[in-house]
Input
Amino acid sequence: MRATKELVNVCRLRVPLPDSAWVARFSRENPELRIDVLSRLDVDRGQSLTELRLHSPEPGVWAEEVRRLPNVFEVEELEGGPLETHLRVMHRPSEFIPIFRELRLMRRFPFTIQAGNAAWVVVASESKVRLLLRRLRDHVPSVTLESVRHSDPSRPPGPLTPRQAELLRRAIRLGYFEVPRKITLTSLADRFGMAPSSLSEALAIVEKKLLEQWPDDSSAPLEAPPAGRSGAARRRGPDHSS
Output
């Protein structure tokens, strides 16, 4: 008998960050600010390094505000413009990360935080997505599964250009998509001789092309009622990061 192929689910999650997250209050107090989280790296058990870009409708001294946030240890300001601030932030690690590590799942980068809400894309089997939702709702019961795309994992990828295919191959080989990452976006960009912002945009285009090959299928929704509605949610402690 021929084995049934398991569908791959490309899931978009909306995650309201708890107030204890280092970026949550800052984002809620500046709802017009769009924060693109470009990359992150676990430095040790007590510190993570996150690279992000802030887009604002008017100039602001954002680096100074971020330095004053709870659980932020160090802030390095990189290149930017009058309405764009590029930062590298050393901070206390998120309690979400052990969940992704345990399930061997990754959030796709870059992802966006705005008005205290993070928009994540996760690719996984249905069983792992259900488990991920349950585990995340132990911390934030209001996590929402916004959309799902299904795909046959044996289906060939979309029509990438030779340059895009090479970027993807090398990023995979150097460990950019592993958990935890083996190379940061900035280091990867140095290898390619590109600006980090250009590489981030190029990888986002590659991901978009691949995701567009997966047709929408709403016949098998993954969403389940949040654990908090049944009183089953368990609080395991505050989250301190995005």
Q: What stands out?
A: Confidence is low (pLDDT under 50) at residues 215-221, 224-242. The chain is about 30% helix and 25% strand. Residues 8-217 form one domain.
